[in-house]
Every structure is written in structure tokens, then in C-alpha cells.
Design goal:
The protein is of the alpha+beta class. Helices cover about 30% and strands about 25% of the residues. It is built from three helices and five strands, in the order E-H-H-E-E-H-E-E. It has helices spanning about 10-15, 20-35, 60-70, and strands at about 5-10, 40-45, 50-55, 75, 85-90. A five-stranded antiparallel beta sheet has the order 4-1-3-2-5. The protein is globular and about 35 Å long.
């Protein structure tokens, strides 16, 4: 299992055209196909400093999102503070190390 978080960055134009929902739906399908891996979750939110919408995948999500991450040039990243993000799909009981909101 990967120990890295992964991120996909979408431009404002991509986000405004509904791309986050396309990624969420694709992740949902992959998550269900893998029987909902424990701790696998997708978060999203605006990165105003870079004017991008960022989608974050927990380390357990990597296993069911590999093709999606490749298609969108996803990259490994530092763990985000999920308190500032929206939970989009996946394990709502993601382990505390993955879901930092208290």
C-alpha cells in the first residue's frame, strides 16, 4: 500500500466545467469495484494561492485510483489539512491519520 497522499490539480476552467464531478464519479466507481478499501477517501477544495481546484486521495485510495491519477497527471504530495477540504467520496471513517478534522 502506498504511504503517500496524491493530488490532482484542476484549472479554474476545468473546475467550472464540472471536471471535479467527473473525477469523483470515476473514483466512486473504482472504490466500489474494490469493495470500498478501508481508509480510501477523496477530498477536494480550492487552492486560492494557485487558483486551482485540488483533489486529494488518501494513501489507501491509491490502490483503486491508479488509472485515474495517471490520466490526470496526479502527483504525490504532503498530507493536506482535511479540515479545509470537502470530503467527496470514500470511507467516511478514514483513519485519524488520514482525516485530520476532529
Amino acid at each position: 500500500m502506498s504511504t503517500s497522499w496524491y493530488r490532482i490539480n484542476l484549472s479554474r476552467q476545468e473546475a467550472d466545467s464540472g471536471e471535479p464531478e467527473i473525477v469523483r464519479a470515476a473514483f466512486r466507481g473504482a472504490y466500489i469495484a474494490r469493495n470500498g478499501p478501508r481508509g480510501a477517501a477523496l477530498y477536494g477544495g480550492w487552492d486560492n494561492a494557485r487558483d486551482t481546484y485540488s483533489l486529494y486521495f488518501t494513501p489507501p485510495a491509491h490502490r483503486c485510483a491508479r488509472a485515474l491519477l495517471k490520466a490526470y497527471a496526479g502527483e504525490a504530495c504532503d498530507p493536506p489539512d482535511t479540515r479545509g477540504l470537502d470530503w467527496l467520496y470514500g470511507d467516511p471513517g478514514a483513519p485519524p491519520g488520514y482525516r485530520l478534522a476532529f
